[in-house]
Amino acid sequence: APLVEGAFHGLSRLRDAGIPFALISLRQDPLAAEHLLERRGLWGGLFVPENVYFVRGAREKYETAASLGVTHFVDDEPNILDIMSTIPNRVLFDLHDQFSDRGDILRVRRWDELVDLLVRA
User: Fold this and answer.
1) pLDDT for the residue numbered 28
2) For the chain, what is the radius of gyration of the CA atoms?
3) Which of 5, 24, 42, 121 has its CA 20 to 30 Å from the CA of residue 32?
4) What is the mean pLDDT of residues 56-62?
5) % of the chain surpassing 70 pLDDT
6) For the packed helices 7-16 and 111-120, what is the interaxial angle rounded to 10 degrees?
7) What does the pLDDT average to over 76-92?
8) Interval 27-48 mean pLDDT
9) Mean per-residue pLDDT over the chain, rounded
10) Are residues 84 and 73 in contact, defined by beta-carbon separation less than 8 angstroms?
């Protein structure tokens, strides 16, 4: 999977601004996912074991986010965001502009939009 354009720069901006972030990802093979993060240059500087959570289902994704006190949850699947019912701010990363705007979910199309949104929060 190629790294989405702007991801490295965007995550670096969040880190430099002191905005904490975590990766909560559905993965059957966490080790393969860690290796992918490493190959993309994300492991060690931006993602470390303390801010990476590999889960097996959507419900566990929600429970992890809620237990961490996440205030902004970003996903590229609206059905996952629908499950995040108690997360105050849900953001759809719609890279391919395939979804419609919804009143209950914010939508961004690029990393710079996402970072601007999170820095303003």
Assistant:
1) 84
2) 14
3) 5
4) 95
5) 99
6) 10
7) 96
8) 92
9) 94
10) yes
DSSP strands (E only) in 1-121:
23-26, 52-55, 72-75, 89-93, 106-108
Q: In the numeric block, which tokens belong to residue 64?
A: 């992890």
* Whether 91 contacts 114, CB under 8 Å: yes
Place of tokens 């979804």: 99
Burial label for 10, CB within 10 Å (0-12, 13-18, 19+), is: buried
Report d(CA 105, CA 41) in Å as an integer. Answer: 30
Distance from C-alpha of 42 to C-alpha of 113, rounded to nearest angstrom: 20
Residue 2 has pLDDT above 90, yes or no: no
- In whole angstroms, what separates CA 91 from the centre of its chain? 9
Residues facing 55 on adjacent strands: 26
Contact yes or no for 121/14 (Cβ under 8 A): no
